[in-house]
Every structure is written in structure tokens, then in C-alpha cells.
Amino acid sequence: MTEEQQEQVPDEELPEIPPEQLENKLTYTKMMRQDGVLGWKITQKVRNGENTRWFPVYMSKIVSEEVFWYKFNPICGLYSLNLVGLEPSMEEEPIGRYGMSWIDFMKQNYPHLVEFMRLHHKFLTVARKVDEDAIHYRELLDEQYKKAYPRPNADSFEKLLEWEQTRAFYTDSTVMRERVLVPYTEDLLA
Length: 190
Fold this sequence. Notes:
It is built from five helices and seven strands, in the order αβββββββαααα. With 190 residues, the protein is α+β, with helices and mostly antiparallel strands.
């Protein structure tokens, strides 16, 4: 159920977790509203009896001006980092040659930026954007090269091969130097 759908559910229909599914000595878990905020009322066995508390579904914490959201797990009674907005994996959305070259470059030269972007689930997204931009830039350079140095007539296979190799080397090396081997961060996504 989405958050909006959960808000529409009447209080008497809010879910309760069956006791056999509960962990960490929890004996009772039921979703309920408190002051209009959706949360979970839990009861846990403790040394001197039982402890009953209410926890909001979401909780935020500010660390170094960054806001981190946590979601309450009613089965174990713990908060975990809310990983909504994860970027697609490489299996779900493959990254092209230029993006993979950028990933290698960043890992070797800027590991601190890599860790920062991974923390915010942006590393693979930026790599995909680098790949996309590099492909468009290569196409632009390719057109400019063809205008500046027209393809020779087909009188000699060697001349055609040399022209093709020179064009490919020029466009690829320029794309690598100007678009791929650059320490981009999330600003590329804006």
C-alpha cells in the first residue's frame, strides 16, 4: 500500500502483525494513528514484564546538514535507513562503455567522491548520464569532423581505412579527455 492509501484507511482497519511473525521478544504490533501521525504500537517482553510504546512509521535525523529518513520495521521493532529512491543496478539498466570508463576513473582517482555518491544512491545514475552525454558529444564531433575533412572517394581501400581510423581516434580520444575522464558528481544531473 502506498502512503496515501494508508492515510485513507480507517483506524479500525489498520493492520496488526500476527504474533508468530514477530521477532526480538515482541508480543504485539498494531498500526495506529497518534495525533494524526501513522505509527506502530508495539509491546515487548522485558525483564520486569512488558513494555508498550508507539513509534512513527518514518523518522528523520539530520547529520552534517543532510537529512536521513528511517522507516520502522514492525516485525523486529527497529528502524532502518529508508532506501526509497535507490538507483537501478547494472543488471536492471546496463551502463555503456563510456560510463564504465568513468566508473574506473573515479574509483582510481576520487574514491571519496565515489563513496559520497554511493551513500546518496547517485553513483550509477551519474555514470549513466556521463555515458549518455559522451555518446551525444561523440556524435557531434563525428559530424564536425566529416564537415571539416570530407570522406575521400572510394578509389583506395587504404585511404578509406586510414580516414575512418583517424576520425574514430580523434572523436573517441576527445570524448574521453573532455567528457569521460572528468570528476563529475551529482551536479551533472541538474
